[in-house]
Amino acid sequence: MKLLPEFIRPNWKVLILGFLGLCTVYVLKHQLNVWAWLHGEHRVFYDTTENLTSFPAGEVILNKSVRYLLNDLFSIMIIHGIFQNQRYTKFAFGLLLFGMLVLLPLYFLLVYYAPDGYTSMVANVHRIVLNPVLMMLLIPYLYHMERQKNEKKGAS
């Protein structure tokens, strides 16, 4: 009995490294305070949707941007580890750039300019943008594309 379809041949090293990287970023998310490191300090960054505006804007933007990049880069490793397809990996990098140039700035605008009472909306946008949700949603989509491509080959 096969565990994976034959059109999926994962690179287990890259896949496991990506997964361990995502886990590490999650576990150490409060210690990832690049702003403090650059200023010669070592302090945790306990941010919540309610207290984000109490931090300097530069600290929030830098720390959240670094976390976004790490999450998405490790997610891209997972995608590449599963499919080993350069087109898919490039598409995932395109999604990373879209998030970095469009979604992340919109998130920061919401954090600092959303009216009172919109914290639940900001929290949900945070989950979509800063957590690797969009990248992880690519996996079933790409799997479906691979399966369809494989079925068309088999039918020909």
Automatic annotation (TrEMBL):
Domain of life of the organism encoding this protein: Bacteria
Keywords annotated in UniProt: Membrane, Transmembrane, Transmembrane helix
Transmembrane parts of this sequence: 12-28, 95-113, 125-143
InterPro entries according to UniProt: ExosoTase_F-assoc_memb (IPR026414)
Entry-linked NCBIfam families: flavo_near_exo
Descriptive protein name: Exosortase F system-associated protein
Species this protein is from: Phaeocystidibacter luteus
Origin organism lineage: Bacteria, Pseudomonadati, Bacteroidota, Flavobacteriia, Flavobacteriales
